[in-house]
Design brief:
Number of strands: 11
Number of helices: 17
Structural class: alpha/beta
Order of helices and strands: EHEHEHEHEHEHEHEHHHHEEEHHHHHH
Distance between the termini: 58 Å
Strand order of the largest sheet: 4-3-2-1-5-6-7
Largest sheet: 7 strands, parallel
Oligomer: single chain
Length: 395
């Protein structure tokens, strides 16, 4: 294999796992060259990634950190940029394959820069689809970009979706997060540290909180609908604490195909990087005898209302999913900052969406027809969520 790549979001958990895969593939003699990498504000992590990957270009999201970034990367032979335009430049630079792993709506513009030049995009940023699903999918088709899902659940579906026209339904599996068996009373006093203590996956704080509320699984439901073209009533969610089966595809003849593996993000990353081939990866092998049993349970809608919110937003249309994602980002930030309680996250999102639905402008009644309209819905949802979170904090 000879391939040039870029990694958008190199210092996060997906970015770090991507580095590990690249280093292992290089050790196998694969020719993997790195065009560009980006980080948010983690300059030491960006410098470590530059030393490991030797990219041509490195960008930091915070424009105010340009001078500090240049100092941190001095002597590494890398061109340095900062700010939103630099992130977009990283996506636009000529790499065959781009890992989209920037968390949140901030990842949309640089990922679109890669899509517009027809790159192969490994999609770990679910907000690209949740925020701008139809527009994003149509842009990929228009520009000939190949979208490869990296989220373990969507990657699993991608691997076993052999006859799309003969599918009855999809099932996404959820670990249940750290509060799978907790009461609402316990959840009402949960701290950010408790919410981020995921039992199976080592992830960033935002996605860890989303996993704890099951919002992450709801966002994945939206992502699966846009990515694979199935309506919400053809997508189920089931809690599977062992995180061994990553998703299932149910066919019209009664067959159910599932992708199974140990919970390790290097597996879907390597699959996307080597696609359509496969390469060896030094992950722990699945030992079913040692595992003993696999268990499943239905998610509790009363304790985890996020799933219902996401399904309702998907049924309402693309503007509603944009607003939901934006409001959730604000609510999670407020929770992590200690301003609102854990259960207030979904309350904030629900009230923000309800307010926008009642607004005279009808802002989320129509599907956005441009990325400017997506941005307008995003801004309005964030403003509404900030007001609600602020009132909850003051109560």
């Amino acid at each position: 294999m000879s391939r040039s790549i870029s990694i958008l979001g190199v210092t996060g958990s997906i970015g770090q796992s991507t580095i590990a895969v690249v280093e292992e593939m290089r050790g196998q003699g694969q020719d993997i060259r790195v065009e560009a990498i980006t980080a948010g504000q983690n300059l030491s992590g960006l410098a470590d990634a530059c030393r490991a990957l030797r990219p041509k270009f490195a960008a930091v999201a915070d424009a105010a950190l340009l001078a500090a970034a240049r100092e941190a990367l001095v002597g590494l032979g890398v061109e340095v940029g900062a700010g939103e335009s630099a992130l977009e430049e990283a996506g636009a630079r000529p790499a065959d394959w781009v890992m989209s792993a920037i968390v949140g709506a901030a990842g949309l513009a640089p990922t679109m820069a890669a899509v517009r030049r027809g790159a192969t995009v490994a999609l770990a940023n679910k907000e690209c689809l949740v925020c701008a699903g139809p527009l994003f999918i149509n842009a990929a088709k228009t520009h000939g970009a190949q979208l490869l899902p990296v989220d373990s659940e969507h990657n699993a579906i991608f691997q076993v979706l052999t006859h799309p026209q003969r599918v009855e339904k999809l099932t996404l599996t959820a670990s249940g997060g750290p509060f799978r068996t907790a009461s609402r009373e316990v959840m009402s006093t949960a701290t950010p540290e408790q919410a981020c203590a995921h039992p199976k996956w080592n992830m960033g704080r935002k996605i860890s909180v989303d996993s704890a509320t099951l919002m992450n699984k709801g966002l994945e439901l939206i992502e699966a609908s846009y990515l694979f073209g199935f309506p919400s009533d053809s997508i189920d969610v089931i809690v599977h604490p062992q995180s061994t089966i990553h998703s299932l595809v149910h066919y019209v003849d009664g067959s159910v195909l599932a992708q199974m593996a140990t919970p390790d993000m290097r597996i879907p990353i390597a699959y996307a990087l080597a696609w359509p081939d496969r390469v060896p990866v030094s992950t722990a092998r699945l030992d079913l005898a040692a595992l003993g049993s696999l268990t499943f349970e239905a998610p509790d809608a009363s304790r985890f209302p996020a799933l219902g919110l996401c399904r309702a937003a998907l049924d309402s249309g693309a503007a509603a999913t944009t607003a939901l994602s934006a409001a959730n980002e604000v609510a999670v930030e407020a929770f992590l900052a200690g301003q609102i309680g854990f259960l207030d996250i979904c309350r904030t999102v629900e009230e923000a969406l309800g307010g926008l639905e009642r607004a005279e402008s009808g802002l989320i009644a129509k599907s956005p027809t441009s990325f400017d309209q997506v941005a307008a819905v995003d801004r309005a949802a964030r403003e509404a969520a900030r007001r609600i979170a602020g009132s909850l904090a003051a109560a």
